[in-house]
Amino acid sequence: MSTFVQTNVFTDIDCQSTKAAALTAFAGKISTTNALDKSALVQGFLAREAESTTGFGNGVAIPHTKITGISEPIVSVISFQHPVDWTSLDDQPVEIAIGLVMPQTGADQDHLKVLSKLARKLMDTDFIAALQAARHDASQLYQVIQSNVDLSH
Fold this sequence. Notes:
This protein has helices at 19-34, 38-51, 108-121, 125-134, 138-148, and strands at 9-13, 55-57, 60-61, 64-67, 74-84, 94-103. Helix 1 (19-34) runs antiparallel to helix 2 (38-51) and helix 4 packs antiparallel against helix 5. It has five helices and six strands. The chain has one domain: Mannitol-specific EII, Chain A (3-Layer(aba) Sandwich). 42% of the residues lie in helices and 23% in strands. The radius of gyration is 14 Å and the shape is globular. With 153 residues, it is an alpha/beta fold. The chain starts with 8 loop residues before the first strand and ends in a 5-residue tail after the last helix. Strands 1, 2, 3, 4, 5 and 6 form a six-stranded mixed β-sheet that branches.
């Protein structure tokens, strides 16, 4: 089962409009809320982005990484105060990121299942519209994802 709780939803975060700044801000929020190593998260997110972009399009990215010290995947969401240049697949900036932090060991199948479920939902225009409409309210953003995406694995 993935851990997705409302305390892992952060809205209107103000950061520079670069992907590195956005990922650093996101890692800071996730690490503080979940007592994780921020630098390990930043390094993991940036290493994954170096492989290929996690900007799926329609203003949404799914940054993800694996770290030691957790036994269950953590799902987190952040909306940015200003669009972030993410070099997304559609060349549009990102306004919302859904982050996945997976256990370092034994999580390959879980990682792929959760990522696949999210990626499929990101092709649903109604889901994207609901995300965008809720992006300034953590409770609403949480509800949109919780009620539309089965994050269990």
